[in-house]
Amino acid sequence: MNTKEAKGNDLNTLLTGYNVSAEMARCEATLVWNKVMALLIANSILASIVSFGVNTILAVLCSLLGIVISFSWIVLINRGVKTFRYWITKARYYEKLISNLGTEVNIFDEGSKLGTKDGTLISLPNEPKPLEFRFKGIERLASGKFIEGWFLPIVFIIFYLLLIIVILYP
Asked: pTM here?
């Protein structure tokens, strides 16, 4: 990305692309969160049905359904996170093009520094010194990698497999 490429674009067009990318990232983050909650609730309902001591066939079927839901959970969340990262990367691309035209926009670039040891500084008007933002000591959590997207589904899969073993081999 160079200055020539940036100058070839109209600032309004770049700002529109940036706004769309940022909005798509926000929407995708909301979708990922909603999927996690829906699949967690579905698995919780199935686990509670199995835990109430229903007959053996129903318990095994609910456990198998729970395993299928958990595997689909892994696929859905991984796809959603990849799409989210795409839109964030696209927004950062537009930030750099806009900055090349002389208007500084670096919201996503600055936000990515929160999870680092150095953090980020933000200068505000009427503030004597820049404000420091960082997550001290929890860089992994701040980067969104503390609990991977596959952790909870794997816990449910193990739970259901153990239930099937206990039910079928008492």
From this structure: 0.69
CA 104 – CA 110 distance, rounded (Å): 12
Could you give phi then psi for residue 131, rounded to 5 degrees? -85, 135
**Domain ranges in the chain?**
9-168
3-state SS class at 147: coil
Place of tokens 């739970």: 159
CB 114 within 8 A of CB 120: yes
Tell me the pLDDT tens digit for each residue of 74-93: 888 889 888 988 998 898 88
Find all residues with CB under 8 Å of 150, minimum gap 6, and list them.
74, 77, 78
**Is the dihedral angle over the CA atoms 113, 146, 44, 75 positive or is it negative?**
positive
To which H or E segment does residue 122 belong? strand 120-122
Q: In sequence order, which residues have a C-beta less than 8 Å from that of residue 148 and are 6 or more positions away?
A: none
CA-wise closest residue to 103 among 9, 8, 15: 15
Q: Rounded to whole angstroms, what are the CA distances from 75 to 45, 64, 81, 98, 164?
A: 21, 17, 10, 35, 23
